[in-house]
Amino acid sequence: MKKFILIVLILFSSLLGANTLKIATYNVENLFDLYKDGYEYKEYIPYGHARWNRKNYQIKLNNISRVIADMNADIIALQEIESLQALKDLRKKLQQKGIYYKYYAIANLKNTTVKVALLSKIPFVYAKEIAVASSFRFRNILEVKYNYKGQEFYILVNHWKSKSGPESMRLRSAKVLKKRIAELGYNKKIIALGDFNSDYEEYKSFKRKRRLNDTNGITGINHILGTINYQKPVFHLKLDDGDLYNLWYDLPKYLRYTHTYKKYKEALDSILISNALLNGRGLQYKKHSFTPFRAPYLFDKKHHVYRWQMTRKKNGKHKGKGYSDHLPLMATFTY
């Protein structure tokens, strides 16, 4: 009996002393700088008719930095950052709020209108881009490798094609991501996250939409990445080689959304993890820590996600209000 109590006390003490990493992802909805380079959306041309000016830019920076500061993640992946300048301006605004991300990276080798990026409080080994296709319709994936306090892991930041394009375009991104995971090794600790423009059960929702379903029912997020095989908690169970687990399944169904459109709720963003983050060894996902960040100020009076506001006229103008059309996601990992 005494031996059992001693073991329990040791385990409890180790849990209390466990180190943690909070990792997040956030589509910030079009964070454009004030430099005209010719790739902007028309409503984000600096000092143009839409009033994308210093005042509105500073409001946008302040609002997005408020969200990030309140989450206070150790690492945050970002989508829809126009440029390195916009990323640096956001980082500076965060520092003014007392949140310092010393390390940062952006996938800016290709002049896509918006890009993926990452802010980190902890150092990384390298950051590199994975090309999906030469076309500007596809955004590069950002790969960041960490080796922190003996914990080696990889973060792969994604922003797949929106549903203005068919599923075959998202399938292409999924195949490139799958190939890179195989190259890294199925035994590696890998976190693939971002805006996949896909529901966590996309294979159900898109079948009836002929405009999207040009793949005979095959989806990138479910079939190519293998998430379709694990639709309930799989803690300490082995995933098949190359498959990923979608952390949405660690959350009640009514909370599974990051985006609202009229009366519809969608989970366009995800955090996917490899088997090595579920096997009980080293860095591990902390059960039930995954959640959208749901601060009250991120919702409007109709409880829709309080996106960045523009007038509804044909040539809309920035109102200088709102945040993003996506909620952030975050999860905790222990080691």
Question: Helix coverage percent of residues?
Answer: 10-25%
Total helical segments: 6
CATH architecture identity = 4-Layer Sandwich
What is the CATH superfamily label?
Endonuclease/exonuclease/phosphatase
SSE succession: HEHEHEEEEEHEHHEEEEEEE
Mean pLDDT: 93
Secondary-structure-based class equals alpha+beta
The oligomerization state is: single chain
CATH class: Alpha Beta
Q: Which regions are unreliable across 5 or more consecutive residues at pLDDT < 50? A: 6-16
Distance between the termini: 29 Å
Beta-strand share of residues: 15-25%
**Count of DSSP E strands?**
15
What is the third-level CATH name, the topology? Deoxyribonuclease I, Chain A
Shape: globular
How much is the radius of gyration in Å? Answer: 20 Å
Break the fold down into its secondary structure elements and pairings.
Blueprint: H1 2-16, E1 20-31, H2 54-71, E2 75-81, H3 84-96, E3 103-106, E4 115-120, E5 126-130, E6 141-148, E7 151-159, H4 167-184, E8 190-195, H5 202-205, H6 220-224, E9 245-246, E10 259-261, E11 264-266, E12 269-273, E13 284-285, E14 291-292, E15 329-334
Parallel strand pairs: 1-2, 7-8
Antiparallel strand pairs: 1-15, 2-4, 3-4, 5-6, 6-7, 8-12, 9-12, 10-11, 13-15, 14-15
Helix pairs in contact: 2-3
